[in-house]
Amino acid sequence: MLVWTVCAALIVCGVLLRHPYLFQDVQYVLAKIKRRRFVLKCMQTNYSILDRFLDLVKTQPQKTLIYFKDEMFTYREADVLSNRAARAFLQAGCVKEGDAVALFLGNQPMFLWLWLGLLKIGCPGALLNSNIRSKSLLHCLNCSGATTLVASEELLDAVKEVLPHLHEQQITVFILADRCETAGVESFIDKMNQASSEPISKELRSHLTMQSPAAYIYTSGTTGLPKAAVVTYSKVWNFSLLLATTGVNSKDVIYDTLPLYHSTGLLVFTGAVERGIPVVLRSKFSASQFWDDCRKYNVTVIQYIGEIMRYLCNTPQKLSDKNHKVRLAVGNGIRADVWRDFVRRFGEIQIREFYGATEGNFALLNYSSKMGALGRHTFLHKMFFPYAVIKYDADKGEPLRDSSGFCMEVEKGEPGLLVTKITAKAPFTGYVTDLNQTEKKKLHNVFKKGDLYFNTGDLLRIDEDNFMYFHDRVGDTFRWKGENVATAEVADILVLTDCVKEANVYGVKVPGGRAGMAAVTLMDGLKFDSTVVFKHVEDFLPSYARPRFLRIQVCLLQLFTLFAFVVKPLSVEQDVFDSLALKTKMSTNGKERT
């Protein structure tokens, strides 16, 4: 018996030496299978994240749900305030069963009370990016089908810009203020204050299923204006369970500085509800106050995007850098060098990098703490959650296919397009009212006739140890300040100015990521008016989408003159720049002359 035990131990040791990540790989796949089974069970019983929240209101009513500045709100108080919001919508008579309501505000508790209130009456919230203006704002409203808009008081000027168009479309407009003197805009706060806080009848949401939309979250994708991804109740569960998969437990306190209108920010709230824990909500990320907040609220888990970690590493060093209780960081987009600097400076915090898309049907998690990786490529994972990294023709903008018309998987070390199989268990719900863009994200006959895959639009590579790394995005997009910028949208805005005839926009590498570069040609007989163009860009584009560089060309194929907007940020906490000075450069025989 002892001999057999020793032999078995030796075999196990041999396997582990050859496959050191085997146990972790198996554990991760089993966790994902368990997560999928839980979601399927919720679908059968129609148990939503709202039901989970209401259960917590009963079992832990006095536990804190939200910390915000010097305020704190318990689960019970969140229930009361969201009841008032729900009744205010109903009593205003502007919302009926299934109607979408657009929420146009930044991070604040009211954002959550409004969204929870809408869920209670069976309506999805269209979560508008608070940076959008004018044409983009109207587009996002139109594609969601929302007939009601609720905006924060700080965004009243942005609402006024498009108010005539809103009235033409018979959209009811509310502002989050005690009173409003703008004609055609009603106060919402006074309606909430007058509304009852009694529980909302479940009958009002009896029409919902787990495939019903809980929210519309906007994504730039790869082309054109923002698209409203349909986030169903089952997808909300998938978002929420990610925190549990990364190791967040019922004793944690999580810090959320990311916008709630993005899935990454909303995930923290819904994930905290799934865990039954508090969320420290901040209106906007601040590098200088980040660790002070963590100490003040006893934060144990933080969420990040790559820019946040880089900003934190760029702040002046302090003796208190490791004086905190943070044990876990969950997010995406951290570079290997920033990862290394972060843990060296702020302590042995576990980093759990994940990969996923708002509209996607697949996710990766770096559970092995391999710096720079998104996750691991394993046979077991691929068997239960089918995906592939396929050869891609960047010039044609499409996958490469063999003589039989089928796609081919890449070799180790070769970048390729990540595609994920669309099935009943892993659906792709697409974009609301945009069937064309929904179809564009589907790939047919990938490995056999009749199969269907989701095109992530991301190029990944797999190394010799089966770790997966992000390589680049395909299509007309780049990422800046944590936001996806659709180049076609920026180009469309630029050609609206009187002097610009054509525009081509793309991202160029700068320290910290990719910044926008616009190549333009001018109208015949007109000169470039920097003041007019700058004001136009400032009025019509959010700060993150504004080009930092502008090339003026005779045609879009030949460089003539380069104009560069030279930017000087006030601090890492600001998303906008203090000033833009126009600098002219001429290109002569391949050399640059100022």
Mean pLDDT: 87
Number of beta-strand segments? 31
Briefly note the CATH topology name of the largest domain. Rossmann fold
Shape: globular
Largest sheet: 8 strands, mixed
Count of distinct structural domains: 3
Number of helices: 17
Task: Determine the CATH superfamily of the largest domain.
Answer: ANL, N-terminal domain
User: Which architecture name of the largest domain does CATH use?
Assistant: 3-Layer(aba) Sandwich
Strand order, largest beta sheet: 2-1-11-10-12-13-14-15
Structural class: alpha/beta
Brief rundown of the structure:
It comes from Maylandia zebra (zebra mbuna). The chain is of the alpha/beta class and 594 residues long. It contains 17 helices and 31 strands.
Write the SSE topology.
Layout lengths: L1 H17 L3 H24 L3 H11 L4 E5 L2 E4 H18 L8 E4 L4 H12 L4 E3 L6 H11 L3 E5 L3 H13 L3 E5 L9 E2 L1 H6 L18 E7 L7 E6 H14 L7 E3 L6 H13 L3 E3 L8 H7 L4 E5 H9 L13 E5 L3 H11 L3 E7 L6 E3 L9 E2 L2 H6 L2 E4 L1 E2 L4 E2 L16 E6 L13 H6 L1 E3 L7 E11 L4 E7 L3 E4 L2 E4 H8 L5 E11 L2 E10 L7 H11 L8 E7 L2 E10 L12 E9 L2 E3 L1
Parallel strand pairs: 1-11, 3-4, 3-5, 4-8, 5-6, 6-7, 10-11, 10-12, 12-13, 13-14, 27-28
Antiparallel strand pairs: 1-2, 8-9, 14-15, 16-23, 17-20, 18-19, 20-22, 21-22, 22-23, 24-25, 26-27, 28-29, 29-30, 30-31
Helix pairs in contact: 2-9, 4-5, 6-7, 9-10, 12-13
GO biological process, one term: long-chain fatty acid import into cell
InterPro entries: AMP-bd_C (IPR025110), AMP-binding_CS (IPR020845), AMP-dep_synth/lig_dom (IPR000873), ANL_N_sf (IPR042099)
Pfam families: AMP-binding, AMP-binding_C
